[in-house]
Amino acid sequence: MLNLLNFRAFAVTIILYTALASEVVNASPIVKIDGSSTVFPITEAVAEDFQKAKRGAIRVTVGISGTGGGFKKFCRNEIDIVNASRPITAPEMEACKQEGVQYIEMPIAFDALTIVANPKNTWSKTITVEELKKIWEPEAQGKITQWNHVNPAWPDKKIKLYGPGADSGTFEYFTEAIVGKAKSSRGDFTASEDDNILVQGVASDIFALGFFGFAYYIENIKKINAVAVDNGSGGVLPSAATVENNTYKPLSRPIFIYVNAKSTEKNEVVEFINFYMKNAPALVTEVKYFPLSKEVYDLNIEHLQKKKVGTVFKGSGINIKLEDILKLESSL
């Protein structure tokens, strides 16, 4: 009886092992992506359409850990692609170099970083770059706490500030563009990598002010208002037109994906990137960002084919015009 039981147990083990081995052999290859919450809607839309087109033959996972968090994983060889709402920085370049990670830089859209206020806010429909700096610079903490501290004509009420967390590329871009140094900011504000939390905060408080990517503003346009930004030439609202004609300064910016060069040895990654660049114009528009020219997407494919690694943005995407991207590409 014991021998029979042992034989049955052995047989069950073999069956289970065979089934598991079969699952491993037949498992769909995976493209792993993480990073920016700003770029997430674009890459997620591409991933969904790609997986439908492949009928489940290739899986794509898209996480949100912020641009900085994404680059940490990317430079540790943990993911194939990182979504980035600003160019790779010098410390990140060094971290990747230390781990032998080379990358192909691909601008995929333009975003208008949007300043948002509660719809009942009637006093700051336009805000100057200097006023934004006065609110957000490190020296403002504990001092610039009321609206009238910024502008005497504004209410004697406490400002409630909302913005992305320190790992966010949007936070880095905003602080570099407005304060003059990336990550240089007051710390007494509600920070979150989840832009929906920021939307909810501004929508629920008349005295709130926040910032995040244009797509999240458009998605919640009935709950919050965009604030016109005055860089010295009058207030300008974010839009496709003001991004394209470079009047929405300094808060229009290119956004990216970075592809691990070693990952391009995998067919699933190459297929995904080709699909991404072919469908980017339509999907970027669909999720309310601003597409680049066909030449840029074609150039991304050329760089993929040639494995052209490195960055042309030198750590900054401040005030780069759409038409200048092609010129920058030639400097690789």
Q: Helices and strands, in N-to-C order?
A: HEHEHEHEEEHHEHEHEHEEEHEHHH
**CATH class annotation of the largest domain:** Alpha Beta
- Continuous helix count: 13
How far apart, in Å, are the first and last alpha carbons? 74 Å
Give a short account of the largest sheet: 5 strands, mixed
Number of strands: 13
Question: Top keywords for this entry?
Answer:
single chain; 332 residues; alpha/beta; D-Maltodextrin-Binding Protein, domain 2; 2 domains; 5-stranded mixed sheet; 13 helices
Short recap of the structure:
By secondary structure, the protein is of the alpha/beta class.
Structure description:
There is one protein chain. With 332 residues, the chain is α/β, with parallel strands linked by helices. It folds into 2 domains: 9-110 and 254-329, D-Maltodextrin-Binding Protein, domain 2; 114-237, D-Maltodextrin-Binding Protein, domain 2. The protein is built from 13 helices and 13 strands. It has helices spanning 2-26, 40-54, 66-75, 90-98, 129-136, 147-150, 169-179, 195-203, 214-219, 240-244, 267-286, 294-306, 324-329; strands spanning 30-35, 59-62, 81-84, 103-112, 114-117, 126-128, 160-163, 190-191, 208-212, 225-226, 228-230, 235-236, 252-260. A hairpin with a 4-residue loop joins strand 11 (228-230) and strand 12 (235-236). The protein is elongated. Residues 7-25 have low confidence and may be disordered.
